[in-house]
């Protein structure tokens, strides 16, 4: 059974980067650490100098030497002085929101955003590591940028891949990137960019126990959109065995309620009509910054659920946050993603039922419908307890729209286990599912303890079967809406053509609406008659 003390590990990693205090981040990883991954300073011989073929541990491979750049830079040099930055985001909504934080920080420091690659002094890529394919995309983009480079410029890799791959990004032949910044070091970007502009490659991948960027005002790409994401927490403590996120984003920490409410009110004043609260595990949210208001604290787990980490208690819970956020403006829709089924308190179900502006859509990632796979994944629930939660939710909110994530071909998944997942999908009757073929990630518990034994062609076949069952279910659900009326929040022009707008129902389904006599504007609520659709979207008349 996996046991470790993350606090201790984090302090070791902090200690190691302090001890090395390197100014030269471009060196190869093995030059500055011992082969056990705990730095002992870069002077003097290490154990490896005496034992020649000391095997490298897997941990060394994934977490190469941490040698953050500690070089001093003057205050004046921190200013971007009108230099142009191109910001490119890959991956999830959390990354979109992180890029908004980066945009805010860079604008504050005198940088200007450009959309033109050719005129950019720096190109910043917000990256994802969740599956191997996500990282491959970034390597491709880095090579493409290098080939297209016509004048000196900095390329910076930010986010999860920066945290996972670290200095290898800087030392890979071809000088593909000059700055590496992990998810907790965006405040350091002005210094890292200034260093790179003076010719020094620079890296900061220190993870933090406290950083929530609570005081940074995120700047959205397009301020005309009427929907916004608000990050309420960072990191994840769940340690699902397949997942790299706890290693790339660090320990779970919640942003204080007051700062979230300030942001939501600012967005309301800008005319935003829908807020999505974001976090890796939103309903384990705890604001312990002030325990004076502790309305509705409920730290009991629903029966049948367990956690590898101690259940959080005290402070202000997700139910409290949701209560406050939904009262800011009752014409503003509230969504949240993603909750973990094991942390789903009854209070949140009650609130969704009671408040008309909290959408009746719940993303409840099941990952698998088979007990032995769920156990191997370390999810903390069984098929039965998951289904009990689904029943409770459906009983309380009859028109609820449930969505989920599934992984096909996890370690040890048998054909029978796969069939159990297909039958869970049918039983729950999801309105939308994201399905992924399993991708083994170095450093995860599955990588250390389990065997990635489902052949690639079988994984792909099961992935396709999950996708086709999902399409069959959602098509049936969408067809059943024909002729009914739905309240849609218009999000913008539809890709279907000049005279079409698109928006979402309360349940989160996209509806394309043809504009006839009555005009629609982004941010309008309109009652639409459903006239058609596919498994993915619906169409309607207004
Ligand atoms: N392989 C495939 N899918 C994964 N996910 C997370 N880690 C992996 C992995 N190693 C999926 C899970 C998660 C979603 C965000 O990504 O389904 O809920
Ligand atoms: Fe990964 Fe599990 Fe955390 Fe989601 S809850 S980010 S799947 S560890």
Automatic annotation (TrEMBL):
<dbReference type="GO" id="GO:0046872">
    <property type="term" value="F:metal ion binding"/>
</dbReference>
<dbReference type="InterPro" id="IPR013848">
    <property type="entry name" value="Methylthiotransferase_N"/>
</dbReference>
<comment type="function">
    <text>Potential regulator of CDK5 activity.</text>
</comment>
<dbReference type="Pfam" id="PF04055">
    <property type="entry name" value="Radical_SAM"/>
</dbReference>
<protein>
    <recommendedName>
        <fullName>CDK5RAP1-like protein</fullName>
    </recommendedName>
</protein>
<dbReference type="GO" id="GO:0080090">
    <property type="term" value="P:regulation of primary metabolic process"/>
</dbReference>
<dbReference type="Pfam" id="PF01938">
    <property type="entry name" value="TRAM"/>
</dbReference>
<dbReference type="InterPro" id="IPR020612">
    <property type="entry name" value="Methylthiotransferase_CS"/>
</dbReference>
<dbReference type="GO" id="GO:0060255">
    <property type="term" value="P:regulation of macromolecule metabolic process"/>
</dbReference>
<dbReference type="GO" id="GO:0005829">
    <property type="term" value="C:cytosol"/>
</dbReference>
<keyword id="KW-0949">S-adenosyl-L-methionine</keyword>
<dbReference type="GO" id="GO:0070900">
    <property type="term" value="P:mitochondrial tRNA modification"/>
</dbReference>
<dbReference type="Pfam" id="PF00919">
    <property type="entry name" value="UPF0004"/>
</dbReference>
<keyword id="KW-0479">Metal-binding</keyword>
<dbReference type="InterPro" id="IPR023404">
    <property type="entry name" value="rSAM_horseshoe"/>
</dbReference>
<dbReference type="InterPro" id="IPR002792">
    <property type="entry name" value="TRAM_dom"/>
</dbReference>
<dbReference type="InterPro" id="IPR038135">
    <property type="entry name" value="Methylthiotransferase_N_sf"/>
</dbReference>
<dbReference type="InterPro" id="IPR007197">
    <property type="entry name" value="rSAM"/>
</dbReference>
<dbReference type="GO" id="GO:0005739">
    <property type="term" value="C:mitochondrion"/>
</dbReference>
<dbReference type="InterPro" id="IPR006638">
    <property type="entry name" value="Elp3/MiaA/NifB-like_rSAM"/>
</dbReference>
<dbReference type="GO" id="GO:0051539">
    <property type="term" value="F:4 iron, 4 sulfur cluster binding"/>
</dbReference>
<dbReference type="InterPro" id="IPR006463">
    <property type="entry name" value="MiaB_methiolase"/>
</dbReference>
<keyword id="KW-0411">Iron-sulfur</keyword>
<keyword id="KW-0408">Iron</keyword>
<dbReference type="InterPro" id="IPR058240">
    <property type="entry name" value="rSAM_sf"/>
</dbReference>
<dbReference type="InterPro" id="IPR005839">
    <property type="entry name" value="Methylthiotransferase"/>
</dbReference>
<comment type="similarity">
    <text>Belongs to the methylthiotransferase family. MiaB subfamily.</text>
</comment>
<dbReference type="GO" id="GO:0035597">
    <property type="term" value="F:tRNA-2-methylthio-N(6)-dimethylallyladenosine(37) synthase activity"/>
</dbReference>
<keyword id="KW-0004">4Fe-4S</keyword>
